[in-house]
Amino acid sequence: MEWKISEGLTGYDYALKQMEGQVADIISGEGSELVWLVEHPPLYTAGTSAKKADLLEPDKFPVYEAGRGGEFTYHGPGQRVAYVMLNLKARNAEDIRAYVQNLEQWIINTLSRFDIDGGRRPGRIGIWVDTPSGEAKIAAIGIRIRKWVTYHGIAINLHPDLANFKGIVPCGISEYGVTSFAGLGRQVTMDALDDVLKEEFLKIF
Questions:
Q1: How many independent structural domains does the chain possess?
Q2: How far apart are CA 87 and CA 34, in angstroms?
Q3: Which residues does 90 contact at the CB level (< 8 Å), separation at least 6?
Q4: What is the CATH number of the domain that holds 101?
Q5: Is the pTM of this model over 0.90?
Q6: Nearest to 180, CA basis, from 168, 190, 167
Q7: Residue 193 near residue 106, CB atoms below 8 Å
Q8: Structure confidence at residue 172 as a pLDDT band (50, 70, 90)
Q9: 21-45, pLDDT tens digit by residue?
Q10: How many helices (DSSP H) and strands (DSSP E) are in the chain?
């Protein structure tokens, strides 16, 4: 299995193309499993359940059809996106619900290492925290699976510009806010987050 970190900002079209190629190689037996960590330039992505009305500012940033599950989300600088390409069949782990729960637990365990109490909320995808102004999402999850090979993955808000989430209804949920490590008063570098992400990933997967 490979662990790759891309420097700078990775274009979304390029990321999709690379993921599609890697997944095809894994399915054919020619490629290895991969976790790929990136940052994107500011953009919105639409999942397969996205509602047009939830794109509040369609001209603010480029909008991409992601092909993953879920609705609209924002990606941009200061947010760590982890694309996870695993062969669930080879791992004898052909259970989509269990896979999503493992992704959630990976995020929860990572947040805990930085003294952030993240958790699941019934009926709401992603990982949530309590803030003085109410519950807020700190991490998003959106996956796709082809022939039991996973792709897309998770996005954790380290220190993105949270105002950019206002151009959409994030994941179709308008009643709650969005926050980040910085918004919770945690000053953490991307390198430090990456180190913990890898450590916690290997404990679960």
A1: 1
A2: 10
A3: none
A4: 3.30.930.10
A5: yes
A6: 190
A7: no
A8: confident
A9: 999 999 999 999 999 999 999 999 9
A10: 3, 11
Contact predicate 117/129, CB 8 Å: yes
Cα angle, residue 25 at apex, residues 20 and 29 outer, rounded to 5°: 150
Domain that holds residue 92: 2-204
pLDDT at residue 174 in the model: 81
pLDDT of residue 130: 97
Q: What is the mean pLDDT of residues 101-129?
A: 97
H or E element: which one contains 190? helix 190-204
Q: Are the CB atoms for 78 and 161 separated by under 8 Å?
A: yes
Which residues are designated catalytic? 171
Is residue 139 a contact partner of residue 127, using CB atoms and an 8 Å limit?
yes
Residue keyed to tokens 């269990």: 98
Q: Tokens 């102004």 map to which residue?
A: 133
170 — pLDDT class (breaks 50, 70, 90): confident
Structure tokens at 156: 């954790």
Extract the tokens encoding 29: 């037996």
Q: Is 139 helix (H, G, I), strand (E, B) or coil?
A: strand
Q: What burial class does residue 175 get, using C-beta atoms within 10 Å of its C-beta: 0-12 exposed, 13-18 middle, 19+ buried?
A: exposed
- Residue 131's SS3 state is strand
Q: How far is CA 175 from CA 99, 124, 133, 138, in A?
A: 27, 11, 12, 15
pLDDT for 173 equals 78
